[in-house]
Amino acid sequence: MLERVLIVGSGITAAVTASLLRNILPSTCSLSIWDKARGPGGRMATNRCPNNDRCTVDLGVQYISPISSELHDHKSIYNDLLQNGFLSPMRGSIEGENPYDDDATHYVTPKGSGSIVKHFLEAAGAAIRYNHHVDSITLCDNKTWDVCTLGGQKEQFDCVLLTMPAPQILQLKGSIPSLLESQQVAQRLEAVSYSARFALGLFFSPVVTINVPWSVKYVERDPVIRYIAIDNKKRDSDQDVSMVVHTTVPFGLENIERDKDTICQEVVLPRLRELMPDLPTPVSVKNHKWRFSQVHHAYEGKPGAVVLNEAPLLVIGGDSFTYSKLDGCVYSAEKMVKIISAKL
């Protein structure tokens, strides 16, 4: 019987996995989540203006765009998010050629994309510890896992689920390298690739208005900027004005090793002003680098999750094993829960 389960990561895959597990785990089983970050969300984290809580911006996921089959498969999840105000239909206009299927339905997150992650985490009731950067996972007496962090924290678990990007799984120490090799998983993880980009969040004074006919704009044939959104307008929110800017993937990949503040302030922001010369001056700017933005080439076969060890159980999952959309993360979560359910 499982007594102590650990999920590493606190993004949307981890949050959905935890909420689904709470429904099947025995009441005596403890459920923990560790993340190296200071808060939850991963690419679905919402950032706030340093001096104005009414001004927020989503630097990662911009909107949720399921196709009809995904809406069917995850009907209960979408109904829950819509009924509780975490999703609403997108009303703002999208200008420019965008990558979405004609069959896609666009939803926005009125409270920010991070609110969806927090919603599932609250439902899970897990013990969450931030600033816990897992460094090694070591098999102990073939019964439990010794999980250690860079900060020196160490605990034992009889089931571990890893939801971080593939390159971070490959960096783990302890028993992980030998397990990856013995299961012939390492080479497939190494083949997983990601897009990369820089992102800017611009926060404006409450009296500012930005007069453009769109809420989202995909910039065509620009070497630096691919995407601009008036974030509060996109989310149909009454919060103060904010804007998010994403660079092109080629620009991100070319400059990924450079300092994010230098790139954003000396290259991206000046280019934005060239594209939008009437843009008001923001009161604050948040610079961010997405080294692992979206999965470009997923794990072979897109299995959703892979079992690295049967007993004690160790499973790896996340969008590396599916694709980078909410539904891809949910598919991975469902697969991990199915694996654990078979052990109960």
TrEMBL record:
Gene Ontology molecular-function annotations? oxidoreductase activity, acting on NAD(P)H
InterPro entries linked: Amino_oxidase (IPR002937), FAD/NAD-bd_sf (IPR036188), RNLS (IPR040174)
Can you cite an annotated GO cellular component?
Answer: extracellular region
Could you tell me which residue ranges the Amine oxidase domain spans?
105-296
Fetch the Pfam families from UniProt: Amino_oxidase (PF01593), NAD_binding_8 (PF13450)
Q: Cite the Gene3D superfamilies for this sequence.
A: 3.90.660.10, FAD/NAD(P)-binding domain
Q: Which PANTHER family match?
A: RENALASE
**Name used for this protein in its record:** Amine oxidase domain-containing protein
Query: Which species is this UniProt entry from?
Result: Capitella teleta (Polychaete worm)
